[in-house]
Amino acid sequence: MEYVKIFFVNTALLITLSYLANLIYKYTVTHASEPVKRVSWVLLAVFAGWISTFFGYRLHEHVIFDLRYVPLIISTLAYPQPLVLIIIGIATGLTRLTFGVNEAALVGVLNLTILGFVCAALSVWMKRSSSSVMYKGIATILVVNVVNVLNIAVFGVIPTHDYITKILPVTFPAGLVLSALFALIIRDFHLDLMRTGQIIRANKLLSEQTEELHKNKIVLEERAKQLMLASQFKSEFLANMSHELRTPLNSIINLSQMIEEGDESLSAEELAEYGGIIHRSGEDLLSLINDILDLSKVEAGKLDIIIEDLNTSEVPDLLVQQFGVLARQKQLTFSVSLDEGVPAVIYTDPQRVQQILRNLLSNAFKFTMTGGVTMNIRVVERQEGAAAQKWIAFEVQDTGIGIPPEKHDLIFEAFEQADINVSRKYGGTGLGLSISNDLARLLGGFITLHSREGQGSIFSLYLPLHSGASV
After folding, report:
1. End-to-end distance of the chain based on CA atoms, in angstroms?
2. Res. 192: pLDDT tops 80
3. How wide is the angle at C-alpha 45 spanned by C-alphas 42 and 46, nearest 5°?
4. Full-prediction pTM beyond 0.85?
5. How far apart are the C-alpha atoms of 298 and 440, rounded to whole Å?
C-alpha cells in the first residue's frame, strides 16, 4: 500500500504543479514566441519529473519508486514533437542524479532516456494515425507503463522475482490508473489553454479588423467629401458655363434678329458693327467649344500631338499682334523678350504651344487691372535626378490680383476654380489652365506657378530642349 500512497502523493503534487503552471502560462508565456513556449514546456516537464522523484517512495537507500515518467506521457499527448520528447526524457533522467550517483540512479537515467525515445516514436505514430484522441491517449499510457515495467525488470536493480511477485501487481495497475487520471486532468488544462489561445487570436484578429474598418471609414469619409466637393465644383462650373454660353448667344440672337427685321434706321456703320459683334461672339463660342473638346480628348487619351519645327523668333511678334490691342484697351504695358541663348528652332507641337501661351496670357490680362504683363523666353537648366537637363521656359508675369498659396494646385484641376466669385466677376470657365497643364504634360513638359494674393503671378511653361534644336 505504500506504493499506492506515494503514487497518489505524486499525482497530487503533479496536479498542483500543473494548476500553477496553467495560471503562469495563461498570463505570461501565452503571449511569448513559439521558441519560448517550447523551452518553457521542457523546463516544466523536467521539473515535474524531479518533484515526483523528490517525493517518491524509497524502497531502500538507492531505489526510488515514483511517477516521473507521467510528465513524459502528458508531453506526448499535449506537445507531440519528437525532439522535444527526447530532450524531456534525457533531462528528466539526469535529474535522478541529484539524489546521488549510484547504480540505481544510472539505471533511472537510462530508463527515462529509453522512454523519451519511445514517446518520440509514439508522437510520430499519433501524427500519422487517424485514430481518435482517446484511443491514442490509452495506447500511449499503456505502452509507456509497459516499457517502464520491462526496463525495471530487465535492468535488475530490484531482484526480478521480488519485483514481479510483490511490487508489480500493485505499482503497474496503480500507475495505469493514476497516469490515465492525470492525463484527463492535464488534457482539460490543455484544452483550456487552447481555447484561451484561440480567444486571444480571435481578439487580435477582431482588433486588426476593427482598426482596418476604422481606416476604411476614414478613407470613405474623405472620398465622400471629395465627391461632394467635386459635385459642388461641377455645379458651379455648369452655372458658370451656362453664363458664358448665354452671353455670346444672346448677342448673336438679338443682333441677328435686328438685322433680319431690316430696321431702316440702322446705318451701314451700325450694321458692320453688329456683324463684328456677331463674328466675335461666334468666335468666343467656338473657342469655348474647342476648350471642352480638348479637355475631353485629353481625358480620353485621344489628343494627337504633332511634333514639328517651332521658330522661336516668330513667337514674340505673333503674341504682340494677338494681345497688343487688348493691352492698349486695358491701358496695360505688354512686352515679350527673347534671350540670346534660346535656339532659333525647337521641336514640339507649335499649335499646342501657342494654345498654352494664349491661355496663360489671356488669364494674365483678365486678372490684371493696373501695371502690365510681360513674357520672357529663355533657356534654363534644371536638375533631373543625377543629371542636369536643359529646358526652354516661357515665363508669363503679371501684376494682377494674384492667387493664395493654398489654391495653387486647385486651379489646375478641371471644373475647379480658385474662387467662384472671382470667376463670376472676371468671366471665363476655368478650363484654360487645366487644358494647358494637360497639354504641357503631353509635350513632355510642365507648368509652374509662383504667386501671392495681391502681388501678381508668374506662370512658367517648361518644354524639354532636345539636342537637335538649332541655334
Report:
1. 116
2. no
3. 85
4. no
5. 11
